[in-house]
Amino acid sequence: MARIIFQAALVFVLLLALSPARFLQEFGMAFTFDHDKLNHAAAFAVLAALGSLGWPEHKARLIVLLALTGAAIELLQGMQVTGRDMSIFDWFANCAGMACGLTFAGWTKRLVSGLP
């Protein structure tokens, strides 16, 4: 189940991240721009947690995939087509979110395995 939800969440994050700013504003999603770094961290925390739960044996691959995905998002946002800004600090927020998500997934696994 975590694998399916991870894939859906990844598509959703990519759609939000790569949609033009004016498109998001037209649909009333402009409020997210006030907490940009928190949005990045939260999105990648969820992706890392779901990916870690779905593919526990491939954690290193997951980290590389998400780090490259975050970098690609920033490069694509830097293109003038989307009307978004590229920021290395967004990528740092992505990586911080990944660390939080992996930590949360680890706690969840330990908690569940400790139950009778």
Count all strands and give the number.
Answer: 0
Our measurement of the CA-to-CA distance between the termini, rounded to an integer number of angstroms, reads: 22 Å
Mean pLDDT score, rounded? 87
Radius of gyration of CA atoms, rounded to a whole number: 15 Å
Which structural class do you get from the secondary structure elements?
mainly alpha
Uncertain runs are: none
- Strand percentage: under 5%
**Into which percent range does the helicity of residues fall?**
over 70%
- Please trace the helix and strand order, writing H or E for each element: HHHHH
Q: In total, how many domains does the architecture comprise?
A: 1
Transmembrane segments: 37-55, 62-79, 91-108
Protein name: VanZ-like domain-containing protein
Organism: Mesorhizobium metallidurans STM 2683
Keywords: Membrane, Transmembrane, Transmembrane helix
Could you characterize what this model shows?
The protein is mainly alpha-helical. It has one domain (2-11, 37-113). The chain has helices at residues 2-18, 21-26, 36-54, 59-77, 88-113. This is VanZ-like domain-containing protein. Keywords: Membrane, Transmembrane, Transmembrane helix. The chain crosses the membrane at residues 37-55, 62-79, 91-108.
Short description:
The chain is an all-alpha fold and 116 residues long. Helices cover 75% and strands 0% of the residues. The protein has one domain (2-11, 37-113).
SSE layout and pairing:
Layout: H1 2-18, H2 21-26, H3 36-54, H4 59-77, H5 88-113
Helix pairs in contact: 1-3, 3-4, 3-5, 4-5
